Amino acid sequence: MKAILLAGGESPVPYPLASFCPRPLLPVCNRPLLEWQLAALRRNGFDHIALALSPEDMAAVSGRFVDGSALGVRLEYAAHDVPCGPAGCLRLFEKFIGGEPFLVVNGTTFPGEADLSVLVRAATEHQAIAVLGVRAGSPSPTPASLENLVVGSDGCVERFDLRHASRERRRRHEFSGVYFFRGDVLRWIAQDGYADIKEQLISDLRGRGETIWAEVLPGSHAMIDGIGAYVCLHRELLRSGGASDPGALRSEGVWAAAGARIAPSAFLLGPVLLGRGCTIDEGAKVIGPAVLGEGVVVGSGAVVRESILWDRAAVGDGACLEYCTVGFDAAITAGARLRHEVVPSRGGSRASVPLQDRDGRGGMPIVLPAGRRSGTVRTAVGLALKRALDVVVAAAGLVVLSPLLLLIALAIKFDSPGPVFFVQRRSGRGGREFKMYKFRAMVEGADKMQKDLAALNDVDGPVFKIFDDPRVTRVGRFLRRNSLDELPQLYNVLKGEMSLVGPRPLVMDEMRFSPAWRDLRLSVKPGITGIWQVNGRSETGFHDWVRHDIAYVKNWSLGLDVRVLMKTALWVARRTGAF
Asked: pLDDT at residue 364 above 50?
């Protein structure tokens, strides 16, 4: 049977780990995630597998797994140059599918011991065009993916509810990241543009009267949708013995691959998994559950507690790591004390990590290689300077532009009936809603007309925009052309709800197409302007929007904000596009 593995692409999950290595090669108990996935597919009878990868990951993944013969499967590869969505990726494999039924596995799914054959049987039994693997939802789901699969009393899927941690903490069915499709499903996927499986394809199929079935997957499996899930998966595998090699058992609860050296005075408390060539020096302590990759060195007197160390990481003498994840080749200096940290691989840029805090809204703080705390400190200083820039510019702008703001308000009032300001609830950092202010550029009640004008939408993806919108007033057309309708958002910036630069604030429903993109952009404050706006604005496609938002969060710096502001000023001066 055939399967398609969405092994790479625009999704930043699991972030920030995917910044350190290609997602398919993410180490899980010292084996690449892709190896676990391929082994599970083969065990379930899927031996002809196609991999959808990003161009950046193609060489690394294909070079390591070649044709898949070493794992008993046949592999085919395809890369997508622009973000095209999960369903869009399926278009790459039309010839591979050849009209036959096929399985689709999300790139962050850890199949474990899941029995995937139940999906095949359900498709036949219920004559379903699609079967979705599910499991009962937990009362406290991870914030990275709050998706409730709504299933009717007849067992058929009705819809997906994509929530955020700021919305709803309850769900009844949790999606497992596995689908089984009938071969003719490709005809319902648009030939170009961004296409999502859950929010577009499944919805379209349901609207056409097709049967979409939900089937509970028996057996252990997981979604690696963030650092927390990644750590929990390791704990479960170690405690269950699912990652251990009986031939490598060194002592109770300690598995050591060939070449591992443990000093006589070292203390190891399992479950602990040691890769090839690991060295545990005199007096060192390793307390499980812990995974140490190939060539890891733990110095004299060092302590490693419940942590994951990737290949060739080094822990200096007397250092202490507790609940940490350490990247490839990273070096922790002697005497360092790290707790709940993610340490990038050596050579990784500090800018590759998200701007997050420690209160649970963004995850774990980041430190630079060699155990320096400067990465966290410099990020904190940068954020403080960013806020200072926001306050100074917003306050000065409101004062200096107050005569212009008054003139605009009067023009709007005399031009058409209705309020001066358009106020709408938008999602800010962490998904917290706030009231965003704009000068009203459309007729009163324009938002209620959107449904009737849906066929005129000129952009793909979740946002509704008509370039020649009939709802825009005469004054509104001038304001939008010159981006003056956005000026009241300086007040939002002053209040701390927005920043001058950042992803545009959207309502939660407008981010339903890509939860990974949604959660990444919600890790920072929304902005009045950003990379997307100064690189084509509304004239670019949704895939470019996704790419620009991800680039901003990954590569943020104060200098980047200043450059975006300067370029925005040039865009406004030239009257190009509209926000």
From this structure: no
Full strand arrangement of the beta sheet holding 279-280: 261-262, 279-280, 297-298, 314-315, 331-332
**Whether pLDDT at 165 is above 70:** no
Amino acid at 301: G
Q: Please, which pLDDT band fits residue 309 given cuts at 50, 70 and 90?
A: very high
Number of C-beta neighbours around residue 92 at 10 A: 18
* Distance, CA of 17 to CA of 424 (rounded, Å): 35
C-beta separation of 342 from 354 below 8 A: no
**Cα gap 197→199, rounded to integer Å:** 6
**Confidence bin at 158 (pLDDT 50/70/90):** low
**What secondary structure does DSSP assign to 117-164, as a single string?**
HHHHHHHHHHT-SEEEEEEEPPSS--TT-EEEEEE-TTSBEEEEEEE-
The answer to whether the beta carbons of residues 234 and 309 sit under 8 Å apart is no
Find the helix or strand (DSSP H, E) in which 45 lies.
Answer: none
Q: Give pLDDT, residue 200.
A: 81
Would residue 434 be called left, alpha or beta, if left means φ above 0 and alpha means ψ between -120 and 50 degrees?
beta
For residues 384 and 392, what is the distance between their CA atoms, to the nearest angstrom? 12
Domains of the chain (ranges, CATH numbers):
2-227 (3.90.550.10), 244-371 (2.160.10.10), 381-574 (no CATH)
